[in-house]
Amino acid sequence: MNKYKLTLAYDGSQYGGWQIQHNSLSIQSLVENALSTALRTKTSATASGRTDAGVHATGQIVHFTTTTPIDIVRLAHSLNGLLPRDIRVLDVTEVSLDFHARYSAISKEYHYHLSFVKNPFKHLFAWRIHTPLDLIAMQAATHHFIGTHDFATFTNAGGSQKETTRTLFRLTLEPEDEGVRLEFVGNGFLYKMVRNITGTLLAVGQKKLIPSDIPQLLHAQDRRKAPAAAPPHGLFLVKVCYNIE
Amino acid sequence: MNKYKLTLAYDGSQYGGWQIQHNSLSIQSLVENALSTALRTKTSATASGRTDAGVHATGQIVHFTTTTPIDIVRLAHSLNGLLPRDIRVLDVTEVSLDFHARYSAISKEYHYHLSFVKNPFKHLFAWRIHTPLDLIAMQAATHHFIGTHDFATFTNAGGSQKETTRTLFRLTLEPEDEGVRLEFVGNGFLYKMVRNITGTLLAVGQKKLIPSDIPQLLHAQDRRKAPAAAPPHGLFLVKVCYNIE
Asked: How much is the ipTM here?
């Protein structure tokens, strides 16, 4: 038996998220079907983490095991032939049997895009903001999130994680073409954590909160104290890092 | 009665093109419905030219006339509220009554995107090329198209134009992020002319033709002599120029 790691990019707009669900088409089911067809045997795929409906990925990592002998270049071509065009396999690499897409990850990077411009090509890939934003205040607020904190205020029921302490290594606000991008790098993220923090940073940008409100919000450990989550379509899973690389 | 000019951007992926048709949803019908609702009277919209199904625009120009008094800033907001998110009104300007979106145009600019990379976010916005391309040969071939020529070889039946001579002011090959972009600027374009020229330039890039074959192809005035058209989804109508500006 051998184990392989896939790097995937996908436009999540048309799907019900990574995870197999009964009422919508999941990226996982399409990837597992493609793998099962290409390898001629039922194959499951485990991702570094689920992405919600409408969330995109440019560097999702998935592992699978198989006893079928594999030519990794040919497999990438076959999978891309079998998958819809909005899901692409960027890379196939053999990994050791103790590799796990989720448990071996040492850090993950997410980007959240806010757009200030009406652009019909971006409406599924950035959150369109119609109000002026105080970017200096948002930048100041990001510092309160960096480091090791209990992020219970910034997660929603529905996550599998009981322990809500995480370390955010980096959270920066980067100007981009038609808006700004929030870059999150951390050792792990709770369910909806990036979207919840983004919603709160937006409230700071709109002067509904001030940066020094953040420590109290973190301390409260109560989701209801913080503003609403940002919508899924501005969010991209960009990179997952492992010790093996 | 007053006349107004709209600048529109749209992602053409979901539509049957600009022009109203019986079997598919057209951008024209959505724009006319939005105008008719906003102005409270049935209003028609005339574009600088039709775009085919799957073709995009970042600067389509449309005119309409109305007797309803208009606040142009408010109208842009209303139209964007009424239109789907993949069609945006970028600008509304009052123009003189003798302005015509199509007949007053002095030049148009189209871009055609070729992509060399598998990118699930570009599959509806660039033609994915899987073969190596001789970009030097393609660049050389572009020079044969520039200037005033009878472009009959590079148009398809279905266009309304009988006279097939046009002037191409500029045709350049520009490197971009994950591929190259062909930029066409001309005094007018025949039906499918940009896509047909792009298909022929691709054949040059793939060494199925050489640059010096182009003059003969132009001379033949026969669509069947030239390679197949490029698909619609790589094409963008970028700009329409008028004397009034």
From this structure: 0.80
The angle subtended at Cα A47 by Cα A41 and Cα A53, nearest 5°, is: 110
CA distance A87 to chain B (A): 6
Q: Is B9 on the interface with A (CB under 8 A)?
A: yes
pTM score, two decimals?
A: 0.87
pLDDT, one tens digit per residue, over A228-239 is 999 999 999 999
**How is B135-154 classified by DSSP, letter by letter?**
HHHHHHHHHHHSEEEE-GGG
Whether the CA torsion B144, B146, B152, B158 is positive or negative: it is: positive
Of the candidates B86, B119, B121, the beta carbon closest to that of A123 is on: B86
Q: Are A50 and A95 in contact (CB under 8 A)?
A: no
Yes or no, beta carbons of B120 and A80 under 8 Å apart: no
CB A104 within 8 Å of CB A13: no
- Is B214 touching A (CB cutoff 8 A)? no
Task: Express each pLDDT in B128-166 by its tens digit.
Answer: 999 999 999 999 999 999 999 999 999 987 666 689 999
Chain A residues with CB under 8 Å of B11 CB are: 120-121
Max Cα–Cα distance, chain B, nearest Å: 58
Is the CB of residue A48 less than 8 Å from the CB of residue A61? Answer: yes
CA distance B31 to B36: 8
In degrees to the nearest 10, what's the CA dihedral of A92, A98, A102, A103?
Answer: -160
Q: Are B70 and B95 in contact (CB under 8 A)?
A: no
